[in-house]
Structure formats: C-alpha cells, structure tokens
Write the structure tokens for this entry.
Amino acid sequence: MSQAATMPAPPPTRLPRHLAVIMDGNGRWAQRRNRPRTLGHRAGAKAVQVCVDYCLARGIGALTLFAFSSENWNRPEEEVGALMKLFLRMLDSEVGELQRRGVRLSFIGDRSGFPETIQTRMAQAEQHPPAQPCLALNIAVGYGGRWDITQACRSLAGDVAAGRLAPGDITETLLGERISLAGLPSPDLFIRTGGDLRISNFLLWQLAYTELWFTETLWPDLDDAVLDAAMAAFADRERRFGLTSAQVAGGAT
Ligand code: IPE
Ligand code: IPE
Ligand code: MG
C-alpha cells in the first residue's frame, strides 16, 4: 500500500453555507481620493462582483448583501438619487449574466419607497430563477432588521385577527417562517467591512448565532485575500450554540 493511501485525508475546510455581508466604507474610499462619495458607490458595485465570484468558486450556497438600509433613505437627496440610478443600472446590466451563471436573485426589505421602475425590475429579476441554482443571492434594500421583525409580527397578527391562529400558538418557529430569508439556513458568517463594529439594523433575528467578523478594509478594496482571511477565522471558531465545549466535541455532557 502506498504511503499516500495510509495518510488520513486532510479535514475539509469548514466553509459557511450562508454568508451575510455589510458592504461598508464606499464613501470613505472616495473621500480619501478627494472624489465624491458616489464614485465610491460605483467602485463598491465592482466589489459585489468579487464577492459573488468568490462564493460561486467556493460553493458557498447563499450570500446576503446589505446594499441600502431603511435608515439610508435619510442621506442627502443627491446621494440617495445617485444610489437609485446605480441600482437601476446594475439591475439592467448584471441580472441576465448572474442568472446564466446559476444565481437565484432575491431582494429583501421594504420596497414601497423605491421608484416604480426599480420595483418592476426587482420583481422581474426574481422571476425565472435557474432550475438548479448554485448560489442564492439576496440583496437587502430598504432593509432594516426592526422592519423585518415588525412585518413578520404584522403577518402573524393578521392570522390572529382572522381567527386562523391563537396568540398562544405563536412560536419562534412560526415567526421565523415569516421573516426574510426563511427558506435558507441562518447566516453562518457575518462580515462587515469599513472598520465599524456594529450591526446597523441588519439581520437582527437571523444573526442570533452567526459568527461575526470585522475588517478595516473598505468595501471597494475587497479582494479574495480578505475573504480568505474571514473564511480562515470562521473555520477556527467553535460554534457552541449554548452548549459546552465537551458537548460540542461529542464527549461528556
Ligand atoms: C456603504 O458605504 C454603502 C451604503 C450604505 C449605501 P457608505 O456609503 O456607508 O460608506 P461610508 O461608511 O460613509 O464610508
Ligand atoms: C450599513 O452601513 C448599511 C449598508 C451598508 C447598506 P451604514 O453606513 O448605513 O451604517 P452606519 O450608519 O455607519 O451604522
Ligand atoms: Mg457607512
């Protein structure tokens, strides 16, 4: 028997099944170059491609990107307008190619504030998903974690008012079924670029047991090396979900 045959196989690198990202730092990226913030957003759109390519190449099955928060509506009108234009341009130029590559696109968030054209394009992009998607790509736009929990509660309250559900029958599972991303495993890994150590009203419910990783890298500077560093940190974490280390290791309880 050859030596190679007797060697134990290297342990597979543990990758997240679902990666959630706060793409932050576009404005500072531009300001450091004495350019308008909107240029940073355009550069940030290219970094989205880097992140999507990375997930497709590594077989990460789900990616949720925070693109525009419910609070971002309060930014200067000019910046919000530029973001809307960029979003529309991205919808027009990228959706077809993403679908050809096996990406299933979904948008999460309150769409009501978006111009009609964008709402229509979002709905169109969600139609005709690939038969066998290799990546579920969720874009959070007009999204807030508090909005998400509120809309799930409103939906359950509707069932209660209609007599279909008793308040006492509401469980975490039932609420979880009404929350955005319900069909996917919870994010295993969260990444925030831009150096700030906060959640900024992203997936408040869904991140309950997600591993958090932060980097000073500004979003437009994202590259494979940054993502590799996040993956390496994730692979080293022990996820206990409230148990003891011994329990997780399958040893004594
Ligand atoms: C993230 O970058 C993109 C959006 C919130 C739309 P920012 O625009 O927040 O960039 P910084 O944090 O000001 O540098
Ligand atoms: C979070 O970034 C939202 C997005 C990246 C879309 P912000 O720049 O809005 O967050 P804060 O204001 O620094 O918390
Ligand atoms: Mg920011």
About this structure: The radius of gyration is 20 Å. Residues 113 and 142 are 8 Å apart (CA to CA).
